[in-house]
C-alpha cells in the first residue's frame, strides 16, 4: 500500500503539460506588443544602472582596459542562454517563460520550483532597483531625504531590515504598478520612452570618450605606474596591475567576465510576453537577439570610453563617469549622466515588474498557485490581481528591506531558470511529434506480438533475446532518420546524466581553483575522467535523430550549446556563499508548503487525470507524457 502511494505521488510530481495550447483555449491577454516593444522591454530590463557603475568597478579592480574583453566574453556566455530562450519562444507562444518550458519537458514539481524561483528573482530585482533609484535621487539632493527620514523615522531594526522606511521607493513601485494595470500597450510606451532616453545618454558618453579619450591609456608604461604609485603613496605596484592592455592578466579577465555576466541578466523577461506579442514565434527570438546585441554594444562602448578618458587606476568606483567627465574638463556633462542613470533605473524597474505578474498568472491558470491570481481585467486584458499582488509585495520589500545582501539570492533563481531552459531545449529537440508517437506506439506493439514465438497460432509470453551489439548499434548509430520513442528516451536519460555530471564537474573545478585542492593529482585525474565521460555521452546524444519540424528559430550546434549554457550557469551558482543558499532554502520551504498544500491537488493536470473515462481499467493516474499516454488508451494499463 505504501509503495503504491509513493508511486502515485511520484507520478503526480512528474506530470507534464501538453506542449501545444490546450484544446478550446485562447489567450485571454491582449496581443498588442510589437517587436520594437519587446526589444525596448529587453534592453530596458537588462541595461540598468550597472552600465554606469559596473564598468568602473571591474576596470579598476579586476581587468583594466581589458574590461571590453570581459563584456565580450560575458555577452557570448549570456547568448548561450539567449539562444535557448529564443527557440522556446518560437516553439511555445504562451506566458510563463522558463516555468512553462520546464512544465512541458521535466514535469510539474520542477516547473513549480522554476516559477517560484522566477517570482523570487523578479521581486528582489524590482525592490533592489527601486531602492537604487531612491538612493540615486537622494544623492542628487545632497542626501537630504535620507537624512530627514533617519532623524524622524529611524527603525533601528536588525539586518536585513533597513534603518529607515524608504517612502520614495514605495511610491515609485506603486506608481509603476498602476502603469502596468493600465495595459501592456501603455507599459510598453513608458518603457520605450525611458529606454530611448537612456540610450541617448549612453550614446553621448560613448561619443565623448572617443573624442576626448587618449589611446595611451590602453598601453600604460612603467613610468605611468611609478607616478601613480607615488601619487597613491604605495611602495608596491601590485594593486595597480602590471601595465599594458591586460594589467591583471587573463585571470583578471575571467574574474571580470564572471562579474559582467550578471549585467546581461534580464532579457528573459521577453519570454513572458508569449500571449501578448502579435507574432510571438517570430518576434520573441528576434527581440532576444537584438536586445543582447544592443546591450553588448552599450556595455562595450561605455567601458571603452571610460578607460580611454582616464587611466583605469584613477577611476572612482562609486561614480566613475561623472569623475571621468571632470577629468576631461566636461563637468556639466555629469548632469546628463544623472538623467541617464535615473532613466536606466526606471526602465530596469519596469522591466523587472512586467514579467512578474505574467509568471504568477501562468502558474495560477495551471492551478499551481491560487486560482484568483489568474483573473484578467475585461477592459485592459491584463492579469489584474497578479499585477497588484506582485506590485504590493515588491513595494513592501523596497519599503522595509536593505536588499544589497539579497542580490546573490536573486541570481540563484535566474541561473537555475537558465539551466532548466537549456535542458528543456536539449530534450525536446530529440522527441517525436505526437502523431508520429501514436503511429510508432501501435507499430511497436504489433512488432512485439509478431516477434513472439507461436504455438498453434498463439503467441507465447517470452522475452526476445537482444544482443549487446544490437543495443550499442541502436545507441551509437540509430537507423531511423526521425526521432522515435526509443531515441527520445535515450536522449532524456543522457540529458539527465549530463546535467548531473556537469554539476559534479563544476564542483570539482571549484575545488581545484581553491587553495586547499590546488595541485592535487587525484582531483585532476577525476576531473579528466569526468570530461571523458561527458564527451562520450554528448556524442551519443548527438548521434540521435532530431525532430525536423520547422521553427522560426532553432538553437544551432546541438547538443553543445545547451550543455555549455548549463555548465556556465551551474559554475556561477557554485560561487554563491553558504548564507545565500540558506536563505534560498527558506524561500523554497515556503514554496513547497504552498505546492503540497494547494498546487498538487488543484492543478489542471490533476483534474484531467480524475476525468479519465470510467471504462478504463487503469488504477493509477495517467502518465506524465503529453505525447503518449494522453492519446493512446492502450498505454494506460494498471
Automatic annotation (TrEMBL):
Q: Name one GO cellular component term.
A: plasma membrane
State the superkingdom: Eukaryota
Please give the residue ranges the record annotates as the region Disordered: 611-630
- What's a Pfam family in this record? AA_permease_C
InterPro entries to which the protein is assigned, alphabetical: AA/rel_permease1, Cat_AA_permease, CAT_C
| UniProt keyword annotation of Transit peptide present | no
Q: Which UniProt keywords apply?
A: Amino-acid transport, Cell membrane, Glycoprotein, Membrane, Transmembrane, Transmembrane helix, Transport
The UniProt entry, under PANTHER family, shows: INNER MEMBRANE TRANSPORTER YGJI-RELATED (PTHR43243), MGC138914 PROTEIN (PTHR43243:SF10)
Please give the name of this protein: Cationic amino acid transporter 3
Amino acid at each position: 500500500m505504501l509503495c503504491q502511494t509513493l508511486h502515485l505521488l511520484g507520478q503526480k510530481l512528474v506530470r507534464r503539460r501538453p506542449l501545444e495550447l490546450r484544446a478550446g483555449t485562447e489567450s485571454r491577454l491582449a496581443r498588442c506588443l510589437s517587436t520594437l516593444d519587446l526589444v525596448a522591454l529587453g534592453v530596458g530590463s537588462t541595461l540598468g544602472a550597472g552600465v554606469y557603475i559596473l564598468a568602473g568597478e571591474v576596470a579598476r579592480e579586476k581587468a583594466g582596459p581589458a574590461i571590453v574583453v570581459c563584456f565580450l566574453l560575458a555577452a557570448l556566455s549570456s547568448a548561450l542562454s539567449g539562444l535557448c530562450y529564443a527557440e522556446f519562444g518560437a516553439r511555445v507562444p504562451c506566458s510563463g517563460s522558463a516555468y512553462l518550458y520546464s512544465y512541458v519537458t521535466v514535469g510539474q514539481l520542477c516547473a513549480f520550483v522554476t516559477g517560484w524561483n522566477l517570482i523570487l528573482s523578479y521581486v528582489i530585482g524590482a525592490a533592489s532597483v527601486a531602492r537604487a533609484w531612491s538612493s540615486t535621487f537622494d544623492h542628487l539632493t545632497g542626501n537630504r531625504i535620507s537624512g530627514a527620514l533617519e532623524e524622524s523615522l529611524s527603525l533601528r531594526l536588525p539586518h536585513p531590515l533597513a534603518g529607515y522606511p524608504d517612502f520614495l521607493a514605495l511610491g515609485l513601485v506603486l506608481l509603476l504598478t498602476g502603469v502596468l494595470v493600465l495595459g501592456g500597450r501603455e507599459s510598453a510606451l513608458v518603457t520605450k520612452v525611458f529606454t530611448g532616453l537612456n540610450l541617448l545618454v549612453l550614446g553621448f558618453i560613448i561619443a565623448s570618450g572617443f573624442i576626448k579619450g587618449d589611446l595611451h591609456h590602453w598601453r600604460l608604461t612603467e613610468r605611468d605606474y611609478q607616478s601613480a604609485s607615488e601619487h597613491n603613496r604605495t611602495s608596491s605596484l601590485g594593486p595597480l596591475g602590471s601595465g599594458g592592455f591586460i594589467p591583471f592578466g587573463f585571470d583578471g579577465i575571467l574574474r571580470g567576465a564572471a562579474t559582467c555576466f550578471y549585467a546581461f541578466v534580464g532579457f528573459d523577461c521577453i519570454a513572458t510576453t508569449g500571449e501578448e506579442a502579435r507574432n510571438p514565434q517570430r518576434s520573441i527570438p528576434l527581440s532576444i537577439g537584438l536586445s543582447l546585441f544592443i546591450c553588448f554594444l552599450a556595455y562595450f562602448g561605455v567601458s571603452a570610453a571610460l578607460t580611454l578618458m582616464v587611466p583605469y587606476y584613477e577611476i572612482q568606483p562609486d561614480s566613475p563617469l561623472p569623475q571621468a567627465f571632470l577629468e576631461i574638463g566636461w563637468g556639466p556633462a555629469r548632469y546628463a549622466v544623472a538623467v541617464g542613470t535615473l532613466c536606466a533605473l526606471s526602465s530596469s524597474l519596469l522591466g523587472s515588474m512586467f514579467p512578474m505578474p505574467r509568471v504568477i498568472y501562468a502558474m495560477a491558470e495551471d492551478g499551481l498557485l491560487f486560482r484568483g491570481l489568474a483573473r484578467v481585467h475585461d477592459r485592459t486584458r491584463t492579469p489584474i490581481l497578479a499585477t497588484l499582488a506582485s506590485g504590493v509585495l515588491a513595494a513592501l520589500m523596497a519599503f522595509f528591506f536593505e536588499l544589497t545582501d539579497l542580490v546573490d539570492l536573486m541570481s540563484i533563481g535566474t541561473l537555475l531558470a537558465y539551466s532548466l531552459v537549456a535542458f528543456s531545449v536539449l530534450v525536446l529537440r530529440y522527441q517525436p511529434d505526437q502523431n508520429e508517437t501514436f503511429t510508432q506506439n501501435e507499430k511497436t506493439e504489433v512488432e512485439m506480438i509478431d516477434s513472439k514465438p507461436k504455438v498453434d497460432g498463439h503467441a507465447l509470453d517470452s522475452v526476445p533475446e537482444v544482443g549487446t551489439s544490437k543495443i550499442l548499434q541502436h545507441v551509437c548509430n540509430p537507423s531511423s532518420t526521425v526521432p522515435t520513442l526509443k531515441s527520445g528516451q535515450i536522449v532524456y536519460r543522457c540529458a539527465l546524466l549530463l546535467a548531473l555530471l556537469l554539476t559534479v564537474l563544476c564542483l570539482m573545478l571549484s575545488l581545484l581553483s581553491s587553495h586547499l585542492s590546488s595541485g592535487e593529482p587525484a582531483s585532476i585525474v577525476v576531473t579528466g575522467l569526468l570530461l571523458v565521460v561527458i564527451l562520450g555521452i554528448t556524442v551519443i546524444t548527438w548521434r540521435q535523430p532530431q525532430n525536423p519540424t520547422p521553427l522560426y528559430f532553432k538553437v544551432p550546434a546541438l547538443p553543445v550549446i545547451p550543455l555549455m549554457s548549463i555548465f556556465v550557469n551551474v559554475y556561477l551558482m557554485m560561487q554563491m556563499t553558504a548564507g545565500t543558499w540558506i536563505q534560498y532554502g527558506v524561500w523554497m520551504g515556503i514554496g513547497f508548503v504552498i505546492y503540497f498544500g494547494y498546487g498538487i491537488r488543484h492543478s489542471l493536470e490533476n483534474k484531467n487525470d480524475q476525468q479519465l473515462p470510467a471504462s478504463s481499467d487503469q488504477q493509477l493516474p495517467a502518465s506524465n507524457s503529453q505525447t503518449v499516454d494522453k492519446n493512446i488508451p492502450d498505454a494506460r494499463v494498471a
